[in-house]
Amino acid sequence: MFTEIPRVDMELVLVKDYVNQRNEKAPFYVGKYLVTEKQFLLLMNDFNERLPKGDEYPRICISWFHAAYFCNRLSINHKLEPYYKFEKKPTDWVDYTVNPLANGYRLPTIHEWMHIQQNDTIYAGGSNNLDEVAWYKENSGEKLQPVGQKKPNKLGIYDLSGNAWEWTERFNLDATKVRVMGGSYSSEKIKMSAYADPELQTVTGLRADVGMRVVRNFY
């Protein structure tokens, strides 16, 4: 079914200089933008109804399992090997395994996310001027905004600060909570710091300020 859907565009940035926690060179691709409502619904319209925002807004109100399953469907759409292996369609909590050698899409590890933020600046979006790179409580009207409206960081990645928190990879398969990164349209300015502690979010939660960004291994 999903291979018959026309290719869903996903603009990627190649991160060439990443060294993983095992001190190995491990370049990877990362989404230039947060996953949008349009992209999500093209592959996941049997999961969630369209949200009344617009095609180019970040897709929010998704659980960690929805985000991971979207990664699999995007992988199939792009003729790549899925990274996650689910026992069944994840409407709530569901058991799964992963294939670390797969070339398909997945969620970023915290280590990868911290690398792409390029934290030689005060804010995770790649600037010492937060209003240049982020939608947050003081400038968003406390409303979600379309992706890519602020300046990118030096890697060319948008919305790493603010607009929507971002799910990260889950390593403990029994864990009920996962870290979300970057802050959102409703976050205080202090949460936008490159050095701020990430939040913990229940993996089955559907928050109106949490979205996702995809990565995949470079092979």
How would you characterize the overall build of this protein?
- This protein has 219 residues and is an alpha+beta fold.
- Helix content is 15%, strand content 15%.
- The strands form 3 sheets. A 4-stranded antiparallel β-sheet has the order 1-2-10-5. Strands 8-7-6-9 form a 4-stranded mixed β-sheet, with no helix packed on it. The chain has a two-stranded antiparallel ribbon with strand order 3-4.
What are the SSEs and their pairings?
Elements (H helix, E strand, L loop, with lengths): L11 E4 L12 E4 L5 H8 L19 H14 L6 E3 L9 E3 L6 E2 L3 H7 L13 H4 L31 E3 L9 E5 L17 E4 L7 E2 L3 E3 L2
Parallel strand pairs: 6-9
Antiparallel strand pairs: 1-2, 2-10, 3-4, 5-10, 6-7, 7-8
Q: Quick check: average pLDDT? A: 91
Low-confidence parts: none
C-alpha-based Rg, rounded: 16 Å
Strands in their spatial order, largest beta sheet: 1-2-10-5
Secondary structure tally, helices = 4
First and last CA, distance: 27 Å
Number of strands: 10
Helix fraction, binned, reads 10-25%
Please supply descriptive tags for the structure shown above.
219 residues; alpha+beta; four-stranded antiparallel beta sheet; four-stranded mixed beta sheet; 4 helices; 10 strands
